[in-house]
């Protein structure tokens, strides 16, 4: 992506040796990776990479050589053997998948072998198997994701993996834990990121491209909030269209940029494939990359990015650091988490939750919806969710109901409110008004809920009680 920004930032770093290392990495291309015997990765000598990255390439090359000499069947037997030569202690092993996302080798989780895991997400909702599969189809390379580390009581930790394409049918990989790198992002931070980028896409689609880019490039404008800002590129050449903190990059084509561990941030110089742009080509998605954090004395930190296509010609995105995101969530709690008071605010709240759910997945989203201290519970207004069969997926003030079927739940007038709301969600989204007991007053009051479909499997909504003046206005 914008590796010139890293260059300008890390020039302030105290360690000259670290500076020279990062400069070497950033000056290299991101081509498909040759064998370690060639001594190069993407046009960069392996010695330019940190030890973690070099060891991954060398280990994967050993596995590739074993496949070439012994064939797929024998190789997979060896990769799946927890006592085999490709399991080194508790830290290093080879895993493998076919091009459809079916697990072929996982020595420490044999129950995964044979299962399709293309939709498997990490601790932050990142579709990491899909990402690794895409990376393999482009020749291979480095990637990050967050998984439970069995060596640390299954605490979620960042993992750096190197993926090598075997042939058109399957690929293999190996990884190393980066346990010292904080990599879990709060729901508050992730929601802020989604709202920020989604709002920018809406603005770009509602205005001419020139006007939108002027706004995104304005360092003092509404699309710069502290360390959070937007970057924008075209699809054709990966040309920078917006970067408020480095205007000298605007208009330049970015190719071959890698982060300090060798992750390809930009498309390859040789093939034009890879990089963060590939996520935007799919329409929308998440991406991890290592960046120098000015709040941490310009030391490397993992960043979670969210990117979206504006149209067929260009895309934009933004990213957050873990600590930065947590701080934003805590500081913003008293203002941004005020309960919606109007139908317009209610609809915006629910649609933001739906977008959040589509990006981070049902399991993580419903977990976040259940958090009474999280951003989806605002006073007496909260997100509830159910599948289209009627099973409750999220009900933060009645957790015992989650997993039960509430399709025939009735109010005092005999209205099956969940059936009514489900019908609205099946058609897309809308409002539904009904009588319901207000837990704060103990009395039955008119309530308006807004519901929307997340996907074909489930829907969500939230409701507000109509105040006296609102009821008078409606009358």
From TrEMBL:
Membrane topology of the entry: Multi-pass membrane protein
UniProt GO cellular component terms: plasma membrane
SMART domains cross-referenced by the UniProt entry: Cache_2
Compartments it resides in: Cell membrane
Keyword annotations from UniProtKB, A to Z: Cell membrane, Membrane, Transmembrane, Transmembrane helix
Cell inner membrane in keyword set: no
Broad class of the protein's primary localization: membrane
Single Cache domain segment(s): 44-130, 182-267, 341-419
Protein's name according to its UniProt entry: Putative cache sensor protein
Protein species of origin: Methanothrix harundinacea (strain 6Ac) (Methanosaeta harundinacea)
Lineage: Archaea, Methanobacteriati, Methanobacteriota, Stenosarchaea group, Methanomicrobia
């Amino acid at each position: 992506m914008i590796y010139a920004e890293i260059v300008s930032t890390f020039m302030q770093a105290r360690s000259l040796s670290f500076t020279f290392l990062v400069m070497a990495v950033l000056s290299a291309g991101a081509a498909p990776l040759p064998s370690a015997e060639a001594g190069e990765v993407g046009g960069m000598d392996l010695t330019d990479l940190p030890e973690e990255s070099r060891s991954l390439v060398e280990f994967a090359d050993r596995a590739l050589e074993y496949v070439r000499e012994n064939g797929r069947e024998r190789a997979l037997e060896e990769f799946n053997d927890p006592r085999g030569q490709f399991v080194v202690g508790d830290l290093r092993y080879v895993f493998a998948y076919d091009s459809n996302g079916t697990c072929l080798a996982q020595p420490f989780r044999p129950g995964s072998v044979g299962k399709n895991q293309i939709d498997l997400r990490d601790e932050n909702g990142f579709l990491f198997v899909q990402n690794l599969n895409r990376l393999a189809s482009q020749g291979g390379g480095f990637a990050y994701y967050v998984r439970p580390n069995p060596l640390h009581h299954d605490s979620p930790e960042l993992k750096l993996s190197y993926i090598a394409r075997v042939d058109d049918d399957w690929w293999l990989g190996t990884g190393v834990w980066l346990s010292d790198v904080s990599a879990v992002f709060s729901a508050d931070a992730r929601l802020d990121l989604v709202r920020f980028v989604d709002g920018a896409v809406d603005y770009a689609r509602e205005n001419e491209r020139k006007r939108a880019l002027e706004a995104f490039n304005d360092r003092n404008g509404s699309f710069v909030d502290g360390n959070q800002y937007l970057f924008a590129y075209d699809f054709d050449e990966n040309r920078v269209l917006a970067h408020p903190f480095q205007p000298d990059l605007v208009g330049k084509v970015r190719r071959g940029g890698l982060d300090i561990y060798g992750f390809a941030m930009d498309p390859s110089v040789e093939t034009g494939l890879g990089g963060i742009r590939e996520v935007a080509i799919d329409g929308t998605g998440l991406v991890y990359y290592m960046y120098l954090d000015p709040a941490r004395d310009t030391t490397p930190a993992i960043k979670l990015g969210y990117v979206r296509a504006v149209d067929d010609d260009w895309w934009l995105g933004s990213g957050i650091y873990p600590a930065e995101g947590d701080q934003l969530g805590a500081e913003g709690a008293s203002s941004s988490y005020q309960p919606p008071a109007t139908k317009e605010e209610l609809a915006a709240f629910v649609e933001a939750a739906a977008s959040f759910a589509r990006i981070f997945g049902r399991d993580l989203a419903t977990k976040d919806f259940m958090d009474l201290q999280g951003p989806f519970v605002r006073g007496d207004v909260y997100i509830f969710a159910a599948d289209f069969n009627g099973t409750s997926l999220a009900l933060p003030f009645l957790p015992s109901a989650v997993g039960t079927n509430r399709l025939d739940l009735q109010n005092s007038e005999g209205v099956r409110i969940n059936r009514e709301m489900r019908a609205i969600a099946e058609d897309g989204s809308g409002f539904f008004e009904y009588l319901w007991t207000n837990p704060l007053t103990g009395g039955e009051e008119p309530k308006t809920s807004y519901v929307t479909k997340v996907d074909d499997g489930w829907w969500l909504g939230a409701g507000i009680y109509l105040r006296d003046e609102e009821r008078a206005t409606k009358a």
